[in-house]
Amino acid sequence: MYNYKFDIEKSKDNYNILKIYKNDKSIYMGSKYNMKNKIIDFINQFKECDDKSIFLIFGFGSGECIFELSQKFKNNKILIFEPNYNLIKYVQENISEFEFFNSSNNIELKYYNSSALEELKKSISVFDITKIKYGFLCNYEKVYMDRFTEFNNDVKNFLSDTVLYRNTSIVFARRWFDTLMGNLPEILTSSPIDILKGKYKDIPAVIVSAGPSLEKNIHELKNINDKMLVLSGGRTLKPLKDIDVSPDLLGIVDPGEIAYELVKEYIHSEESTLLFYEGTNEKVTKDYIGNKYIFTQSNFIREIFQMNISDMNLGGSVAHTLTGTAVLLGCNPIVFIGQDLAYLKEKRYGDIALTKFDKEKEITLGLVGGKALKVEGVNGELLDTNEELFNFKRGLENIIKNNSDVTFINATEGGALIKGTINMSLKEVISKYSLKDKGNYIKENNHSVDVNHMIDNTVVSLKNIIKSNKNIIAKSKEALKYIELIKSELRVYGKVKNNYYLNKMDEIDEDIKKSYKDLEVLSSLIYPVVYTILTGKKLSEYKDIIEKNEFLYKSVLAVSEYAMKKLECALEQINNMER
């Protein structure tokens, strides 16, 4: 915690200026002689901003720069992260001295500490991400060098994660809805992963990933003799089967066709247990003959099961899902192999994890997935990686950080350094931790849920969703009729003469909003439309506003009509399930 003492003095040109005392030295956060120029310099970095911009500022200073910013952008949100707790406390206790801050609901002063990233997530939505403007006050980058670097990394990581979420949500909008509808019959006959919570307390788990080093030590898994759990994704299933090892849990989370191609040769006779969720490729779940466990991101699914099923999508890859699952099961230690998170001779995957499908499609497996980066290796060297793999690394490190009572071991032969792990060879791990039989709880699959009752719940839910969706379709068509009448008035009179149409459209808006509030299953489908509307430019011309509304209702109508076919098909499938 930074608790530097300080004074607030007057500069030679009569502005308040903050003076910090650090290491027996005093440092002005600005200019003692010409503070006005420092304020101007601070404001000038925001020349390209508009009334939608959201300001993210490192440092409060004396408040003078923030005051000028708030005067120039009176209605904009300003988020200030101040690293000096003493200054935060002073502002709170002397709020009358900062009238601009006290009188505005748009300015937030937050203490910068380890939870700052969470504060950012609460304050800024995905729809605001393109509006963020970042700045820092004079000399803060020098006095609080470590904190300043951390803050920059926090902001970068927040932006990266949010943009990834946005892009993924837009790209997979329709696909996720399709997989949810297609997976419903399999979900109803599967067990929630939570029924295994703590069943494998202190049993070691090995998370098998497909990095280029995997071929160096995968053979060691033949020596675990039922003393450890083996958790695998789809890409590493074949390499494991090639050495006669069947994973205890096979995690599949990808909605794409490649998820099926990676495992299709094995799932008709596979003895392993499948872990999936509503976004998993539905061909995998339909053809998989082994036991199945689910996790979920959907409240719709939780309501069907009438229990709080965990979400194991913890960082973007199946390795994060499997790691989170191992924690839930109570496993300790948790061991990583093939988790390179970097490239070996421009290879992202090991040769043993490449498939015929990869080669036929001529997929480039070199340095793809965002801009090239360098990352520290386990042996201290610098390795090639990219943004995607670097984000995967951060995700794993967050899981490790949040589970300090679990020992995490990186038994990958090389690759990137994973903070919070112990580096050890797989052979050493097996020798040290293969102590007791792991048990067979996963395959016992004690399904504690009444399937017939869940089928009934699903039928009732789907009927209600279909009813609400029919209302949205009808109201969207009604709104489009009013828009045509308004456009006709604009063409003839140059203005809208009849407020009746506008009032009716307001009523329709409220009706549709109310219907969507209860339709969580359509959230992925409608996301691209909502994002386009909420991030668009502010419109002032009547013609532009009408065109935007026309786009909205046409888009909502198209989404709802597409969804209707899938919903009715899913309802028919559920009604025809064996009871």
Automatic annotation (TrEMBL):
It comes from the Bacteria. Pfam families: MptE-like. Residues 179-345 form the 6-hydroxymethylpterin diphosphokinase MptE-like domain. InterPro entries: MptE-like (IPR002826), SAM-dependent_MTases_sf (IPR029063). This is Conserved protein. It comes from Clostridium novyi (strain NT).
